[in-house]
From TrEMBL:
Subunit structure: Homodimer.
GO biological process, one term: pyridoxine biosynthetic process
Binding site for L-glutamate: R42
Cell compartments where the protein resides: Cytoplasm
Protein name, entry field: Phosphoserine aminotransferase
Binding site for pyridoxal 5'-phosphate: A76, R77, W102, T152, D172, Q195, N237, T238
Cofactor note: Binds 1 pyridoxal phosphate per subunit.
Listed GO MF terms: O-phospho-L-serine:2-oxoglutarate aminotransferase activity; pyridoxal phosphate binding
Functional pathway: Amino-acid biosynthesis; L-serine biosynthesis; L-serine from 3-phospho-D-glycerate: step 2/3; Cofactor biosynthesis; pyridoxine 5'-phosphate biosynthesis; pyridoxine 5'-phosphate from D-erythrose 4-phosphate: step 3/5
Length: 360
């Protein structure tokens, strides 16, 4: 196999064209004879980059004018704390919809700052499936409702948006952002670590409706205060300039590919190819209901831990990297984010076919 395909769940592969451009500009960005990493974040050139990145991201995701985009640090875990510190008001509690490991982790962190009601939205049974998403009868008891549309560990994706009436809806889209079209106006806050579809680890994007800015409790540290960050253009301290720069290149690259509408079609084709193979195989199995199968993280297993380990080792030797499942679940996981070409999925299926033939 001539090519190496990286199926890591994050940090994930980035578009080759973006990395090549960054390589070319590494020592001489914008004819400055220096790297973008060595340019002041307050300089005219870097501020132009920031302005254009905001514009490009808005165009990509069709973000309304009454939403602010913040480029922050601390990853999604940082937002697990920031959200309750900024959104908890008179009602004093939040509802967390539990669909797997990361939504449960977010709820656990939020309990340090407010009362949390946690609701399991997975149906009982051997197949992972999401229950009804209509919470209009209870949502008004809470300051906000939080959920994770895509659970990277189990490969469960929620395609419908939960119904919460006028209550603020918050979504951790770290592993699904820019993978498919969504209606931003249905959300109060969307947040995402960059290391799946946006760029490298080290920067976190928060899309927040402007009327939600300025509600932080008095004791909120300034770095987690959305109002403070918004007023300082996400620069109350020196930001991760190189990560911001790489995100800006990814945005331009995705726009050239036709935007999110075109990207979604490719992602659907990649996922269908892999799931179709899994469905016809009696050697591998996927335990997620078809309507909740993730476009980004495809989980599967042989049902035998030793055989799973052998699969991962031999796949790695063939240039198919990072297919080992998360330690919480085991098995295998193929993360096929935006930057994964369909050739990578085809190469994986070819290997799976041979492995199945050799190990039946």
């Amino acid at each position: 196999m001539n090519s190496v395909f990286n199926f890591s769940a994050g940090p994930a592969m980035m578009p080759k064209a973006v990395l090549e451009q960054a390589q070319q500009e590494l020592l001489n960005w914008q004819d400055q004879q220096t790297s973008v990493m060595e340019i002041s974040h307050r300089s005219k050139l870097f501020m132009e980059l920031v302005t254009q990145a905001d514009k490009d991201f808005r165009q990509l995701y069709n973000i309304p004018d009454n939403y602010k985009i913040l480029f922050l640090q601390g990853g999604a875990r940082g937002q697990f704390s920031a959200i309750p510190m900024n959104l908890i008001g008179e009602k004093g509690k939040a509802l967390y919809l539990n669909s797997g490991h990361w939504s449960a982790t977010a709820a656990k962190e939020a309990r340090l700052f407010c009362d949390v009601d946690e609701l399991n939205i997975l149906e009982d049974g051997d197949t992972l499936k999401i229950k009804s998403l209509d919470f209009t009868g209870i949502a008004d008891q809470y300051d906000y409702v939080h959920y994770c549309p895509n659970e990277t560990i189990s490969g469960v994706e929620i395609f419908d948006v939960p119904e919460v009436g006028n209550t603020v809806l918050v979504a951790d889209m770290s592993s699904t952002i820019l993978s498919r079209q969504i209606d931003i106006s249905k959300f109060g806050i969307i947040y995402a670590g960059a290391q799946k579809n946006l760029g490298p680890a080290g920067i976190t994007i928060v899309i927040i409706r402007e009327d939600l800015i300025g509600r932080a409790r008095k004791a909120t540290p300034s770095i987690w205060n959305y109002e403070t960050q918004a007023k300082s253009d996400s620069m109350i301290n020196t930001p991760p300039t190189f990560a911001w720069y790489l995100c800006s290149l990814v945005f331009k690259y995705l726009l050239k590919q036709g935007g999110v509408k075109a990207i979604e079609k490719v992602n659907q084709a990649k996922a269908k190819l892999l799931y179709d193979y899994l469905d016809q195989s009696d050697f591998y199995r996927n335990t997620v209901a078809k309507e909740n199968r993730s476009l980004m993280n495809v989980t599967f297993t042989t049902g035998n831990d030793e055989l799973n380990a052998k699969f991962v080792a031999e796949a790695t030797a063939c240039g198919l990297q990072a297919l080992k499942g998360h330690k919480v679940l085991g098995g295998m996981r193929a993360s096929i984010y935006n930057a994964m070409p369909i050739e990578g999925v085809k190469a994986l299926i070819a290997f799976m076919q041979k492995f199945e033939q050799d190990n039946k």
